[in-house]
Structures are given as C-alpha cells and as structure tokens.
Amino acid sequence: MSDDCIFCAIVAGDIPSRTVYEDDDVLAFLDANPLSPGHTLVIPKAHHERLNDLDGDLAGRVLATLHDLVPAVEGAVDAPASTVAFNNGPEAGQEVPHVHGHIVPRFADDDGGPIHAAMGTRPDLNDEELDDVAASIRDGR
Fold it and tell me: In sequence order, what are the beta bridge partners of 19?
C-alpha cells in the first residue's frame, strides 16, 4: 500500500467505491469521473505503479478480471462495444500512479475515436527502422 495513493485508499476502505468485483488480489469499481456510463477500473490490490511492475501471475489475474467483466459492463449499460486500455506511465496519460485497466463502454454516437487516434501523427518508419525496433524488443525480453 502507498499512503498517498487514492486507489490504495479505496482498497483499504478509507474511500468508498462502487465495487463491482473483488477477490484477494484484484478490485474493480466504477470510475468516479467516468468517460461513459459503466466506465470501470480494474486494479491489483497491491500497489504497483506501472503494468510492467506486476509479476506475470498478478498481471494475468488483472487481465482475466478485465476479460470476465467486459461483457457484464457492456450488458449493464446496453453498450455494443468497449475500449479496454491501460495508460502506462504519466507520458501515456496515467493520472493515478497505480496500475489500472479501463473498461469504457462505447456507443455509436459517443464521439470517441479508436485507440489509434490517441497518437496524432504516425511516424514514417522504413523497413530497416522497423526491423531494428523489432530486434530491440525481442532482445529486451
């Protein structure tokens, strides 16, 4: 737990939440400032700032919870689709430094765009640059 983390305070019960799922390791609750009706956050109960700070087992439990909740969230608000995403670090838009996955119900007229719209202008990478990036990712595992 982190003393200055709002999500840790929710886990501890110091701040109320509209909990939709809880087990020993994972908590899911409605976002207090939703992007759409039913916007749900799924977090590990243990404090970890970034997705890559989680061990594989806990990451799997968080993802499994997201997987299980998507149809329930969509069904609760009659949404035909959802965007499921993590903002991993402040430069990516992460506002609370505690890992959290978003389930954002989507509707035909919601004026939201695809995840691709988050990046603006796409880089113009040639084959050699793409090969170098792919090799660097493979070598970094």
Answer: 29
- What are the structural domains of the chain? 6-140 (3.30.428.10)
Q: What is the pLDDT of residues 79-89, one digit of tens each?
A: 999 999 999 99
Question: What's the DSSP call for residue 80?
Answer: S
Calpha distance 61→97 (Å, rounded): 19
Active-site annotation holder among 48, 98, 100, 102: 100
54: tokens are: 């989680």
For the question of residue 39 being annotated catalytic, the response is no
Full-model pTM: 0.93
- For the chain, how far is it from start to end, CA to CA, in angstroms? 28
Q: Which of 98, 8, 66, 78 is nearest to 38 (CA)?
A: 78
How many Cα atoms are found within 13 Å in the side-chain-facing hemisphere of 107?
Answer: 13
For residue 73, which of 35, 46, 114, 112 has the smallest C-alpha distance?
35
Q: At 125, list the tokens.
A: 């990478």
In angstroms, the CA 66 to CA 27 distance is 10
